[in-house]
Write a structure and sequence with these properties.
The chain has about 200 residues and is of the alpha/beta class. The protein has a domain of about 140 residues: 2-Layer Sandwich (Beta Polymerase, domain 2). The chain is about 15% helix and about 30% strand. It contains 3 helices and 9 strands.
Length: about 200
């Protein structure tokens, strides 16, 4: 079976036609179409991209959070958190990257797309766990990578490298306990040996 290559420009035009004014920005980056939509249009745009003729992105390959708080160029709307989806149309052999910025930095929330792509289930749990982005409508939004007693969201740029708490086994209590971090953060510099004839080289 031969695979037909679809030009990114063809995908871009199909996405633009399907989303209309809901597409805030459409570009081709790294040979792939990227479309930005606003948070209020996110769910409708996701449904359109899955079902519209010329799009038919029936598979969601990835969903992740991004924290732009220390990004050098900032973001177009001055918002901190973004959710990025990578969608695949098997039938039309094309891909698209869907980006939506979360409107509230203090309490980031977006609607869940698990009703559109069931594969979003664990990905949304991961974005919640690591970035603190809440997905409204998700039926089981629990942590998935960190422990239940974990404090904070470790992929946020302002999360301390050493964390807030540490876990250890207490021999007297015969169980694992949590306590404030006792390890002092330090910078280590590797020792560099400079010899003109190191290893017999001149």
């Amino acid at each position: 079976m031969t695979t037909v290559s679809v030009l990114p420009e063809t995908t871009r035009d199909a996405v633009a036609a399907a989303l209309g004014a809901s597409a805030k920005r459409i570009s081709i980056e790294f040979g792939e179409v990227t479309v930005h939509v606003a948070a209020p249009d996110y769910l409708d745009c996701a449904k359109t991209l899955k079902d519209a003729p010329g799009c038919q992105f029936e598979q969601m390959m990835d969903l992740c959070g991004v924290d732009y708080s220390e990004y050098p160029a900032g973001t177009p709307d001055g918002l901190r958190f973004c959710v990025v989806l990578h969608l695949l149309s098997v039938g039309l052999n094309q891909r698209v990257r869907l980006k939506v910025f979360v409107p509230d930095d203090a309490a980031p929330m977006l609607p869940s797309v698990t009703g559109i792509w069931s594969a979003a289930n664990w990905f949304e749990r991961e974005a919640f766990d690591l970035f603190g982005i809440v997905f409204d409508g998700h039926n089981d939004l629990r942590r998935i990578l960190t422990d239940y007693g974990f404090v904070g969201h470790p992929f946020r740029k302002d999360f301390p490298r050493m964390g807030h708490v540490e876990m250890r086994y207490d021999a007297e209590l015969k169980r694992v306990i949590y306590q404030p971090v006792t390890i002092e953060e330090r910078e280590t510099t590797p020792r560099i040996i400079r010899e003109s004839n190191y290893g017999g080289l001149q």
